[in-house]
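Human: Can I borrow your eye for a moment on a structure tokenisation matter? Separate attempts, laid side by side, tell us more than any discussion would. Could you pick a protein and write out its sequence and tokenised fold? No explanation is needed for now; the record alone will do.

Assistant:
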Amino acid sequence: MMILAQNLRESVLQAAIEGKLTVQLSTDSSTSILLSEITQTKKELLSNKKIAKDSSCKITPYDTDNIEAIEIPSSWKWIKLGEICTKIGAGSTPSGGSKVYVSTGIKFLREQNIHNKGLCYDGIAYITNETNAAMANSQVQAQDILLNITGASIGRNSLIPDDFDIANVNQHVLIIRLVNVELRHYVHWCLCSPFIFNQMLSGQKGDKPGLSATRVSNFLLPIPPIEEQRRIVMRIEELMQKIDGYEKTEQQLTVLKNNFPSDMREAILQSALQGKLTEQLETDSSVDELLELIFTEKENLILAGKIKKEKPLPAITNKDVPFDIPVSWRWERWGNLANSIQYGYNAPAIPQGDIRMVRISDIQDNIVDWSTVPYCQISEKEIPAYLLAENDLLFARTGGTVGKSYLVTNMTEQAVYAGYLIRSNYNKKLCPQYLKYFMESPLYWSQLRNGTTQTAQPNCNGKTLSKMMIPIPPIEEQQRIVKQLDILLPLCDNFVE
């Protein structure tokens, strides 16, 4: 439940029982006469043995001077709830407990079914006619009020509809049956008010609050003339309907606020990769020439034996591309741009040494926390193959962090990288931060999901990374895109109300 909407509800109900929500009219009937009529009716019911004998047939209005209560209009009276009721009593658990529940039969209402807006039938239990008959004292009637008296839902109460058929309740629910049922809507809203709720919590001990029938009977209620009760109920229902509408809007705004940073970030990255964040300038160099230089240098490294020759990657067709890009851009596979895609080194950690081993857990907000990076046991012969260099890209290939990436910068110490990471080493004619932003984009994550093996430990291999498609702009526009993203993305990350 939204906090602002709930505060509005409480304010409305508090104003209502203080007489501040309606006007007091001289034409209204007397509250004293209303209470006298209730007393007389209750005496007749007792005389005819239609209600159980008790000691609350006499209503004694209370002076505000003698009680710690809110101020009410002079035409109103303070009474105890039990004085205007024919019954205040809790239900019980049927013999055998939940084992006697049946799939259909008499509704058996429990605390989860009792809500201020009315009964909730989700997960309702049922009992047989025989069980219901054995629990005659806790049978529910139309126009009753049901009140939760234990646990976290204490104070929640439901009005039973006029056309209600039959039900029973458990020991966590109290039946409140009024002498004059015309008061039930007003009494229901009183029970929802902060003033009554404070009476419920007053004097509670321990971590499991609970109410007894006697205590509920002693709740103090402010009673207006019957005509003003009708006006109060009408006004409350009118305002509650508006607050419900406001609550829906509030919920939508909360979702928007919570999702805004990530949603806006994704939208900006998507726009960047579609060429919508920057201008395409005729003065930019040719992306075809850039790619030709990259491929030539890669071929030379293969011929020199410095990197391995890989199997050719599938050509990108028009059916493969997920969206249009500017005419000066080209689609390319990540593996064609990378000089190598290499798995990390599995080495035991040691207390002291010369070489550290970076793990994905050591990377927070695209920065390596060197205070957490352990030293590792690795032979001098193997170090060169795994030593991290400036502008390498690391990629987590397994576990809960699968897909997380890191652009290596500010290498203040010599380090290799852990076995569950992949290092992508690419041609330096590309803008490294542009590649990193690609690895944060919706385009990257959608391709990653399609290539990830969904097991208890999700994992993705170098082949998936190699086949990923990335839009390549001219180098000048790559730099302009990075400059724009460096400005815009922090605005999303730092978004506050």
Observations:
- The CA atoms of residues 56 and 438 lie 76 Å apart.
- The first strand starts at residue 77 and ends at 80.
